[in-house]
Amino acid sequence: MPKPTRRHLAVATAVAAASAVAAVAVTSTAGATDTAQRARAAVQGGNAKNVILLIGDGMGDSEITLARDYTAGANGRLNMDKFPLTGSYTTYAVHADGTPDYVTDSAASGTGWATGIKTVNGRISKTPGTDKAAPTLLELAQRKGYATGSVTTAELTDATPAVLASHTTDRSCQGPADMAKCPTDTIAAGGPGSIAEQSVNHQVDVLLGGGKQRFDQKVTDGRYKGLTVTEQAQKLGYNVVTDSAGLNGAKPGEPVLGLFATGNVPVEWTGKPAAVGGTEPQRCVTSNPKRPSTTPSLEASATKAIQLLEAKQKQKHSKQGFFLQIEGASIDKQDHAADPCGQIGETAAFDRAVKVARDYAAGHPDTLVVTTADHGHTSQIVPLEATPPGLSSTLVTDEGQQLKVNYSTNTPGQSQEHTGTEVRIAAQGPQAYRVLGITNQTDLFTTISEALRLR
Question: What's the pLDDT at 21?
Fold first, then answer.
């Protein structure tokens, strides 16, 4: 009898684990028999043609639960709750000497899944001690002939999109005028330049988000000296679009740079931020008057990105598919601001993008879809009678019930902080079983690399 391979053992173990978990669920929750069947069917090895990685920035379990309670109800389910395979992963960063830094920022955490290595907070896809560039999933995918894309509601030069298409000593080095903390990365010093310059130089097929202010900065050295980064992109063949109409008109076969806001893309919902002593019960305003009507939603951007990437590969008659990262960035940013309505609205918007990815995968089962977060954050659901020492807000949910949210990871008036907790990771498609159990953030790099045969 042939000796079982490591892959066979891994799949068998995952099947057993999924079956055991599902069997327990069958006895305790309605509809769990169907969950058990879906879990068993979802455990598969093999390779993927496409990968869609969805990152809810700062979207810990509390943030997911808050959005679910408010929009779908305590017994409801979000789109991201419907993946057949779910686990958790650890998110810590490291110090320069490799010892653990228990609370990560988005640069170090993104570097973890983008490169498979841990690094120091603030660094973009470079090693912790020697500050050397490490190959990223996007770069490896490009070398193998995959189409690539990055969609975000942050600036395209913010940490999470930056980790895929750039390497800088510090995350602040977003445009040519922002290089103070990255002297060796400047073009004048023989480096690759700012995050904005590197992103377009990488010829990523689809780049959609905010950050126009970074791309409007002028290049200071090198081949494109005197041009703005936007003009540099156009020289490289990019179709630069700034609104929904421009995005809708984008054609496959040409790289697309979408710059939909000067800074971060405006949030979808508004409301009163949390306050010392709490707020009066409030309903969130689901239409932000400061968000231009011409701004594409994350759902729309995700849909168009998939269409463009798929169409490009068909034009090339390529056997390879695409790698796409989609980030809901302002879940984190609204958490920092202790703004529960902004935070819930961005989680709901991200969840609609999750549905786009899962709907695509339903018709393309050779697509690996993964949804996760980069780190945990501050919001907590607490009893109505609680009197938190920090900031809190009371909401009236869609079920007509009151819910209190607490923000106490920093002194009131200061930006609320990340937490070091593990976060959810869920998946479907080839190699999705790898997310089961408790894994490390860097294991996501291996999961995607194996799925796309990048190594």
Answer: 38
What's the pLDDT band for 361 if we cut at 50, 70, 90? very high
Task: Tell the residue number behind the tokens 């609370």, with chain if given.
Answer: 103
∠ CA 37-443-312, rounded to 5°: 80
Query: Tokens for 142?
Result: 């490009």
Is-catalytic flag, 392?
no
CA dihedral 324, 130, 95, 421 (to 10 degrees): 10
d(CA 449, CA 82): 24
Q: Using one digit for the tens of pLDDT, what is the confidence trace for 270-279?
A: 999 999 999 9
**CA–CA dist 168, 389 (Å, integer):** 39
Cβ atoms of 308 and 254 within 8 Å: the answer is no
Give the mean pLDDT of 199-205: 97
d(CA 358, CA 64): 18
Confirm if 92 and 410 have CB atoms less than 8 A apart. no
Residue 379 zone, left/alpha/beta (φ > 0; ψ -120 to 50; rest): beta
Give me the residue spans of the domains in the chain: 1-43, 47-377+419-452
What residues contact 16, with CB distance under 8 A and at least 6 apart? Answer: none
In terms of CATH architecture, what is 47-377+419-452?
3-Layer(aba) Sandwich (3.40)
- How many Å is the Cα radius of gyration of the chain? 22
| Edge-to-edge strands, sheet with 147-155 | 239-241, 256-259, 206-210, 147-155, 322-328, 50-56, 367-373, 423-428, 85-90, 437-440
Burial of 168 (0-12, 13-18, 19+ CB in 10 A): buried
DSSP secondary structure letter of residue 364:
-
**Residues 290 and 262 sit within 8 Å (Cβ to Cβ):** no
> Nearest CA to 323 among 116, 63, 54?
54
Q: Whats the size of the chain, residue-wise?
A: 455
CB atoms within 10 A of CB 54: 27
Q: Residue 167, Cα to own-chain centre: how many angstroms?
A: 18
Catalytic residue among 106, 166, 194, 330: 106
Which residue intervals of 285-404 are DSSP H helices? 298-315, 330-336, 340-363
Please check whether residue 393 is in contact with residue 337, taking contact to mean a CB–CB distance below 8 angstroms.
Answer: no
Q: Tell me, what DSSP letter sits at residue 49?
A: S
Give, as one character, the DSSP assignment of residue 71: I
- pTM, to two decimals: 0.92
Distance CA 389, CA 394 (A): 15
The answer to whether the CB of 218 falls within 8 A of the CB of 247 is: no
